[in-house]
Amino acid sequence: MKIQDFDFSLPNELIAQFPSERRTDSRLLYLDGSSDRYRDAMFIELPSFLQPDDIVVLNNTQVIKARLLGTKETGGRIEVLVERIVDEQHALVMIRASHAPKIGSKLILADQVNAIVKAYQQGFYLLQVEHDLSVFQLLAQYGQLPLPPYIERDVTLADEDRYQTVFASEAGAIAAPTAGLHFDEKLLSQLRELGASIAYITLHVGSGTFQPVRTENILEHTMHTELYHIPEDTIEAIQQAKRKGGRVLAIGSTTLRTLESCAQRHNGEIVPGHGSTQLFVTPGFKFQIVDRLLTNFHLPRSTLIMMISAFAGLENIHRAYHHAIAQRYRFFSYGDAMLIERKI
């Protein structure tokens, strides 16, 4: 398929720059991929779409303060975005600078911390921090929250709360699993009272989630790698739900990617443990675990719009997005949500 198959015109004013007043205030567009029908709702109505024995799987990754400002030893200004913490003194990073730093050169981060550029590979630099504090501790003290590039404003104190899910517990992401931002504790309690199970996976969202597809033929695109963990109790909860006839609702593309990556690797089964994924979901992909997907509205030509087109059908997504734009739904991280039934 060609990249233009996943293009659409999005008015800039529909890109949400701020979150809704309350997490559950967002709108919800429901799309049934099998019947090709959609309807408008509010996110607070989500429990009415579930049944007892369904399972809701969420990504509990926590966004770290991954953005650091600094200078080269020669004085040039730089911006560092930590992609992955390797160990206490090393991190893989992207560096924005007027001239790329040389291997072996020194950087001064936050006017406080020296770091050495040790290597460069596939778009990322390996930095070694020369400080008594660990990389995690340095980011907590000197880092800034990395809002997505399409939020064109400075980070506020409110973002430090609203750009985290209420269930975030495993630090390591540089972007939030944004479908989870709509939930509050009250709504999660309502789902449990209904009889639905709640389970968690961890996938640390990396910068690759914002990387555009630059090839005309989408199958020539190389997907970024992300690390995940699936606990034993999540596996057991999913298996129990399926035995009872319940449906698996993945909250966000990261959750879907984790579950389907594991199933693809293990002949249709999901197993507990740590792993990594480069899974690129495009139309024609065979889903083995996830029955329903809750997700936000995505960028044109992005890997995420390709994923949901595989899940619901390309024409269904085109129609639903045309409706969402006409009805002034809010797009991207702080925008509204979409509940999709998989096309059978």
Structure description:
It is built from 7 helices and 17 strands. With 344 residues, it is of the alpha/beta class. Strands 2-1-17-16-14-3-12-13-15 form a 9-stranded mixed beta sheet. A 6-stranded antiparallel β-barrel has the order 5-6-7-10-9-8.
Q: In terms of topology, how is this protein built?
A:
Layout: E1 27-32, E2 37-42, E3 55-59, E4 61-63, E5 67-72, E6 77-87, E7 90-97, E8 106-109, E9 113-121, E10 124-130, H1 135-142, H2 159-162, E11 170-173, H3 185-194, E12 197-203, E13 226-230, H4 232-243, E14 248-251, H5 253-265, E15 273-277, E16 292-296, H6 303-312, H7 314-326, E17 337-341
Helix pairs in contact: 6-7
In short:
The chain is an alpha/beta fold and 344 residues long.
What distinguishing features does this structure have?
344 residues; alpha/beta; QueA-like; Thrombin, subunit H; 9-stranded mixed sheet; 6-stranded antiparallel β-barrel; 7 helices; 17 strands
CATH hierarchy class name of the largest domain: Alpha Beta
**Secondary-structure element series:** EEEEEEEEEEHHEHEEHEHEEHHE
Q: Stretches where pLDDT falls below 50 for ≥5 residues?
A: none
Query: What is the total number of structural domains?
Result: 2
Strand residues, percent: 25-35%
Helix content: 10-25%
- 3D shape: globular
- Report the CATH superfamily of the largest domain: QueA-like
How many strand units? 17
Main β-sheet, in a few words?
Answer: 9 strands, mixed
What's the helix count? 7
Separation of the first and last Cα atoms: 20 Å
Strand order of the largest sheet: 2-1-17-16-14-3-12-13-15
- Average the pLDDT over all residues and give the rounded result: 95
Q: Indicate the CATH architecture of the largest domain.
A: 3-Layer(aba) Sandwich
Q: Write down the CATH topology of the largest domain.
A: QueA-like
The rounded Rg comes to 20 Å
- Backbone structural class: alpha/beta
